[in-house]
Specification:
98 residues; alpha/beta; TIM Barrel; 2 helices; 5 strands; binds iron/sulfur cluster; oxidoreductase activity; rSAM_sf
Length: 98
């Protein structure tokens, strides 16, 4: 399963409790007026990963506390990839929030 990612950012304080790594999914169909992330809306852009490859990249950062936030964009546009990530993360990465 492939997934399109806009960016992966470490040391985020504004995306949930604690210091987090945030995965910004590419693509959004919500069309908020005054979108602050318009460059993320087109699903054709972004970097393509296999979900397993994405999870392995996150693990490679060796985060002391594995606090991960999934954001976007609209991550639910890639819902199947989210489900696959959950299966992988059950074993490897705890504390995912969306
Ligand atoms: S990227 Fe965020 S702000 Fe922009 S349209 Fe989508 S949900 Fe709204």
């Amino acid at each position: 399963m492939k997934v399109k990612i806009a960016s992966i950012q470490r040391n985020r304080y504004e995306d949930g409790p604690g210091i987090r790594l945030t995965v910004f999914f590419q693509g959004c169909n919500v069309k908020c007026k005054g979108c602050h992330n318009s460059e993320i809306q087109d699903i054709r852009n972004g970097k393509e990963y296999e979900v397993k490859e994405l999870c392995e990249e996150i693990l490679s950062y060796n985060l002391p506390v594995k606090k991960i936030t999934v954001s976007g964009g609209e991550p639910l546009m890639q819902e199947e990839a989210l489900e696959e990530k959950e299966n992988f993360s059950d074993k490897a990465i705890k504390n995912f929030i969306h």
